[in-house]
Amino acid sequence: MVDLLMLALLLINLIWLLFDSLYATQGFRSILSNVSPSFTLSYAQVHENFTLYDLAFIGIFLSEFCVRWAVALFRKTYMRWYFFPFIHWYDLVGCIPLGGARIFRFLRIFSILHRLQKYQIIDLRSTGLYRFFMFYYNVFVEELSDRIVVKVLSDAQKDIAAGSPLIDDINQQVISTRLPVLNQWLASVMVHVGETIEQDTNNDSVRSHVQKSVGKAVRGNSQVALLKRVPVMGSTIESTLEQSVTDIVTQSIVNLLKDITPEKIDDFVEHGIGRFSSEDHQLDQEVLLIVNECLELVKHHVSQKRWKDSL
User: Fold this and answer.
1) In a domain? residue 207
2) Which domain holds residue 230?
3) Of 9, 28, 84, 210, which is most buried by a Cβ count within 10 Å?
4) DSSP string covering 241-310, please?
5) What pLDDT is recorded for position 122?
6) What are the tens digits of pLDDT across the range 51-87?
7) CA-to-CA distance for 292 and 309, rounded, in angstroms?
8) Residues 87 and 183 placed together within one structural domain of the fold
9) What counts of helices (H) and strands (E) characterise the chain?
10) How far apart are CA 72 and CA 85, in angstroms?
11) Cβ distance 32 to 25 under 8 Å?
12) CA-CA-CA-CA dihedral for 32, 34, 36, 42, to nearest 10
């Protein structure tokens, strides 16, 4: 009820301010004299003392401001007691009885409407005016943001095509600093896999899969297959050899995985992968092409005018 009352007083005050400003012009007084000479003559005294009448509204607005400040302190709306006048600065500036400062009283309308909307006393979202402004506001924001994103992506494409050191910086400043953590994680994963293969009682399916793969490779060996031709003992020798080789290879894999340490992984990366090079850098070019095509797709999707779908 207070907000509705203040909104009504504010509208009256703003309309009065507008009328008095127009009355100060000779052209408006001439038109008003033709319509109602008596009113024009009687309002001249009000115009001369308009500041006094305006002070009455200012007193009401300042009183309401102080009451809301006290309520905010009681409810602890803000972290500090002096935050309220800084946040609602336009209320104080609008109370200055000068022509340039009075325009800030217009902002009080939006403040009051916001509170009425917040407490569900009114529903501005259901009005056609609100939907009209929100539609074109969203169009403006979408068009502006799309152009900014496309510009940023286009600049990124130019930097990459010109040989930007971004990838090297990522490798040196981001990935390299985290290599110890990555190596530790990779080593723990490989040790866990080795222990999983070794524990045939709890994880027989993993060990069985490894043994079947190794056994299949042994049976596919042409030299091992010749053992079947040995009379009487050929099949036995073949199966024994297959089982022995399978156990040896499986245990070798287990030992290899369990013996992995972060230091070994780091040494492998430095002296193994680190020495890898391509003669014509075709792989690097392909990676750059992939990144460029991905950015093009992103630009295409960003550039789509989704606000047209609402029409």
Assistant:
1) yes
2) 170-276
3) 84
4) HHHHHHHHHHHHHHHHHHT--HHHHHHHHHHTGGG---SS-HHHHHHHHHHHHHHHHHHHHHTS-GGGGG
5) 79
6) 889 899 999 989 989 998 999 999 988 888 889 888 8
7) 29
8) no
9) 16, 0
10) 11
11) no
12) 60
Domain closes at, from 88, 104, 122: 122
182-197 burial, b for 16+ CB within 10 Å, e for fewer? ebeeebeebeebbebb
Asked whether 64 and 88 are in contact (CB, 8 A), the reply is: no
pLDDT value, residue 234: 65
**Considering its fold, how many domains does the chain have in total?**
2
Residues 88 and 185 in one domain: no
Q: From CA 83, how far away is CA 77, in angstroms rounded?
A: 10
Residue bearing tokens 């690097």: 284
Low-confidence stretches of the chain (pLDDT < 70) are 163-168, 170-171, 200-207, 210-211, 224-225, 227-229, 232, 234, 238, 269-285, 287
- Identify whether residues 114 and 179 lie together within a single domain: no
> Is residue 298 one of the residues assigned to a domain?
no
Q: Are 272 and 176 in the same domain?
A: yes
* Domain presence at residue 165: no
Find out whether 227 and 234 touch, Cβ atoms under 8 Å.
yes
Cβ 230 vs Cβ 237: under 8 Å: yes
With beta carbons less than 8 A apart as the criterion, state whether 224 and 230 touch.
no
pLDDT at 70: 94
pLDDT given for residue 245 in this prediction: 74
What letter would DSSP give residue 127? S
Beta-carbon contacts of 6 under 8 Å, excluding residues fewer than 6 positions away, are 60, 61, 64, 108, 112
Q: pTM for the whole thing?
A: 0.47
Residue 188 and residue 110 share a domain: no
The last residue of one of the domains, among 84, 101, 122, is: 122
Cβ contact 256:194 at 8 Å: yes
